[in-house]
Structure formats: structure tokens, C-alpha cells
Design goal:
By secondary structure, the protein is α+β, with helices and mostly antiparallel strands. It contains seven helices and 19 strands. The radius of gyration is 19 Å and the shape is globular.
Length: 304
């Protein structure tokens, strides 16, 4: 099977869905003869048919009628996901570090307590392109490298053993977090008004995504991928998706018991150790963040 990536790129008349084969980007609607594939959302909403069509298109790529990757402007690969679900506290190394910093005992494995994954939501308009400049909006803006799952078929009450069948693509996300907006000062911890999830997790540029989407069959096991993050060339996060507490399959299977997941939904699966909050170090204007996940690529962001 010919390897390909799905992406969105900018033309003079607006965004278009593209297929990257080698270092050449092809217009997807033209390549497949399907006008509905002018957007990545259109592809995902027809995933039952699109999967085979994309494979055929990739195999027929000849280098003609395409553009070199370095000649196109990449946008976020999905404009815009219907919903972005983000896992909280989902890596063993991250949870252990946070417990050490807070001087609290390490909690047992949630599986032993009969607990399930938990998620919060980022609004889709938080999504920005690879290479985007994100405006500094917080005195404690933190980085969080995350593996992203892109849902390809509607799923509701899906059993664990079939959950990954509903993942069409994988990508990279940066769950940028305004740590100083997490809790409202001068309000008791037991108050229902103490925590501000909107302020902490939802702001312009809060979710860099990309650089493209990699077909699930090219990734194989999502629980064995190296995940790394650098700030200005200095390594900050260096882990592996094997350290997730709740696997990718467990997360989407559980989410599907609560709410129907739809094509184009993105699930960010949590971040490993090495975030700024663990060391009291946060992003500044001019900082450059780079995330690399094995088999996917690099996602870069600049803070301005």
C-alpha cells in the first residue's frame, strides 16, 4: 500500500483538502473525482467509501498536477473538528511527578478503583495550524504534547475490542493550558465556582493540531509510540504512549457510552511528564515549541 497523509492547505480561493504522497501535495477532490472531498470533513463524513478511494488515489499518484510540500501553506488538518475531547491526568509518569511536586501520595491505578477515563472539551475554534503563532495570553502558559485520534465512523456504546476500528487517522495535538487561570483566587476549594476550565483550556490558539493526518493502518499499535516535546531546542517531554493509564481504545469506548462520537471528532489522549507545571517553567514570547510523535511527524508552534 502506498503511504499517504491527509492535510488541508491554503489556495487563493480558500482551504482545500490535500493528499501528501512523498513530498508532493495533490488536490484531493480533483485526484479522486469527488467534489465532496474538497474538505477533510467531507472525506471523514464519507469514510466508509473514502477509505478505499484514498488508497486507490495514493497508488495512482504520479507526481503530475501536484505541488511540492514546501510550496504550500499548511492549515490545521481538520477545519474544524465537531468536538475535541481531551483526557486528563492520563500518563503514569506525569501523575507521579505531579504527586511528588504537590507532596501527596501517589494514587492507585484507577482501574483498581473501578474508575473510567475522564475528559474535558476544547472548542473547535481553538484549533490552529502547524507553524502557527499563538498569542501569549497567560503568565503560566504550559505545553502538553498529545497523541490525537480522529474518529472516522459514528460510534455509540462500542465495545472495547472494536473501539480502534472507528479511528480513521492519528495526528498530533498541543493542549496548551493557562495554568494561572485554572482556579479562581480567594474562593474556597470546596466551592463549585473554584475551577475555571474555560479560562484554562479554551482561548484563541489553545489547540495547535497537525501537521497532517496519518491513516490508522500505518500507525498500527497506538500504545507503542515515542512522544517528545522541545522548547527552543531543549527537550522537555520524552516518553512513550505505552505509559498511558487508559489506552486509546479504553478512552473512546468509554466516551461512546456517554455521548455519540461522530466523524471528524478528535480525542487528545493525555500528556506525559515534563510539562512546565512540573518544574515551574512556562512559555514566553518568542518561544518555539516542537512536538514529535513517532510515525506521524512534527508539530511546531511559536509563542508571540
Amino acid at each position: 500500500m502506498t503511504s499517504y497523509r491527509l492535510l488541508t492547505y491554503q489556495l487563493s480561493d480558500g482551504p482545500r483538502a490535500g493528499m501528501l504522497v512523498g513530498d508532493i501535495v495533490y488536490d484531493l477532490a480533483t485526484m479522486t473525482g469527488r467534489p465532496g472531498y474538497a474538505t477533510v470533513r467531507g472525506v471523514l463524513e464519507d469514510w466508509a467509501n473514502a477509505r478505499a478511494r484514498l488508497t486507490t488515489a495514493a497508488e495512482s499518484a504520479s507526481g503530475k498536477f501536484g505541488r511540492r510540500l514546501d510550496e504550500v501553506e499548511l492549515l490545521a488538518p481538520i477545519l474544524y473538528p465537531p468536538t475535541i475531547y481531551c483526557a486528563g491526568a492520563n500518563y503514569t509518569d506525569h501523575v507521579a511527578n505531579m504527586a511528588r511536586i504537590q507532596n501527596i501520595p501517589m494514587e492507585p491505578d484507577p482501574h483498581e478503583l473501578g474508575l473510567h477515563p475522564w475528559h474535558f472539551i476544547k472548542v473547535s475554534r481553538c484549533v490552529v495550524a502547524p507553524g502557527a503563532a499563538v498569542e501569549l495570553c497567560s503568565e503560566k502558559l504550559d505545553w502538553e504534547a498529545e497523541l490525537g485520534l480522529v474518529i472516522g465512523t459514528t460510534m455509540k456504546n462500542v465495545p472495547l475490542e472494536r473501539a480502534l476500528d472507528h479511528v480513521a487517522f492519528y495526528t498530533i495535538g498541543n493542549d496548551l493550558s493557562a495554568r494561572d487561570l485554572t482556579a479562581r483566587p480567594h474562593i474556597a476549594f470546596q466551592s463549585p465556582f473554584k475551577y475555571d476550565w474555560i479560562g484554562q483550556k479554551n482561548f484563541d490558539g489553545a489547540c495547535p493540531l497537525g501537521p497532517w493526518l496519518v491513516p490508522a493502518e500505518e500507525i498500527g499499535d497506538p500504545q507503542s509510540l515515542s512522544i517528545k516535546l522541545w522548547v527552543n531546542g531543549a527537550i522537555k517531554q520524552d516518553s512513550n504512549t505505552s505509559r498511558m493509564i487508559f489506552t486509546a481504545a479504553e478512552q473512546i469506548a468509554h466516551l461512546s457510552t456517554r455521548i455519540t462520537l461522530y466523524p471528524g471528532d478528535v480525542v487528545l489522549t493525555g500528556t506525559p511528564s515534563g510539562v512546565g507545571a512540573e518544574r515551574g517553567e512556562f512559555l514566553k514570547r518568542g518561544d518555539e515549541v516542537k512536538i514529535t510523535i513517532e510515525k506521524i511527524g512534527d508539530l511546531e508552534t511559536k509563542i508571540v
